[in-house]
Specification:
Length: 96
Amino acid sequence: MAKGYWVVHITVTKPDSYPDYVAVATPAIAKYGGNFLIRGGPAQLREGEARERHVVVEFESYERAIECYESDDYAPALALRQQYALSDFVIADGGE
């Protein structure tokens, strides 16, 4: 079974509040087996456009990645992220 991924590009608009999102999101993601592969850090734009922060979370399956995003556990974090940042958020199937 192919793994599932959250691929998120973020521009934080409220940096003083953003840690509140991280504090709520991290345990919800862990509950669904999410493993952070990329969580911020330096990045170089080579083509196109990009936001300032990049996050990739790996899940055991595409279905599990969707389940986490749609869960009651992640819903409070989602609401906070949408208040504190602009995001491009994709859930991707890792293929075979």
